[in-house]
Amino acid sequence: MPVERPAASASAPATSRQEVVEAAVKLADEEGIEAVSMRRLAERLGVGTMTPYTYVESKEELLDLMRDEVARAMLVPEPLPRDWREALRQIALRTRAALEAHPWAASARPHGLRVRINLARHIEQSASVVETLGVDPKVGAAALAAVDDYVIGHCLRLRARQRVLRARRAAVAAGQPPGPVIDPAVEAAIESGELARVGRIFAARAESGRLAVAPASDFEQGLEWLLDGIERATRQGVYEWLLDGAEADPDEGTAEVADGLAERSEPR
User: Fold this and answer.
1) Are the C-beta atoms of residues 125 and 147 closer than 8 Å to each other?
2) Angle between helices 17-31 and 59-74 (to 10 degrees)
3) How many C-beta atoms lie closer than 10 Å to residue 138's C-beta?
């Protein structure tokens, strides 16, 4: 049975579908995706508990719309750079910024199969870059997959590092050792020389005052290494394609890339 829209009131706060989604995203940013519920959302908006259902059919649809709102932040302002390296670089940087601003989005699983407008625009931009490479569609899709995996993996690792830092700082504040706790078998292997390098790494981190946490990786340097590899691989792919006398079908290539991106757009 459909939920009836409540009658407008001069004292009722203005609410729209976009406001509901934005409030949900802000709640997830501040307290984590687990905190998002229709009751908490209604409290934050200052409306009745059932009012959010006026704008979204279910919590699953809300989560889907939240993910698409994050995808909006991934879009590179048009026109895209003409150089494919710079275009991929900008897509990667925007995607990283969006996932760092909304950490829950990197691990939130989609609840439906609907591809919404901002994700579709992200796919369109990525596919348009691949077209300029002039390589086999599978090679282009693999290149995008590599960039996608690198960005998401970096953000997940950074989030894990931040959790470890918070835990160790809390331990120090409570007068406890920051850790990590090293298993006796590892200690024995370090002392025997089997894990000599691991021992030196642990010792260096402990002496550095970094709470024995690995330093954050250089995202942009790693991205440049990845783009260098893609450039070499795609040049080789173009050469082999010309030798084989293959004729690429642009429509087929775009479809294959789009299918791959839609599948890989599900955050880990």
Assistant:
1) no
2) 80
3) 13
The candidate with the shortest Cα–Cα distance to 227, out of 162, 167, 150, 160, is 150
Question: Do residues 140 and 130 lie in contact, with contact meaning Cβ atoms separated by under 8 Å?
Answer: yes
Place of tokens 């369109």: 124
Q: Measure the CA–CA gap between 167 and 31, rounded to whole angstroms.
A: 17
3-state helix, strand, coil in the chain (%, to 5): 70, 0, 30
Q: What is the percent of the chain with per-residue pLDDT over 90, rounded to a whole number? A: 54
- Residue 167, Cβ neighbours under 10 Å: how many? 14
Greater pLDDT, 260 or 25: 25
State how far the Cα of 106 lies from the Cα of 153, in Å rounded to an integer: 9
Q: Is the pTM of this model over 0.85?
A: no
∠ CA 60-66-69, rounded to 5°: 145
Biggest distance spanned by C-alpha atoms of the chain? 76
Calpha distance 31→261 (Å, rounded): 29
Q: Average model confidence (pLDDT) for the chain?
A: 82
More confident residue, 48 or 165: 48
116 neighbors 70 (Cβ within 8 angstroms): no
Whole-angstrom distance, CA of residue 135 vs CA of residue 238: 6
What one-character DSSP code corresponds to residue 106? G
Would you say residue 117 has pLDDT above 60?
yes
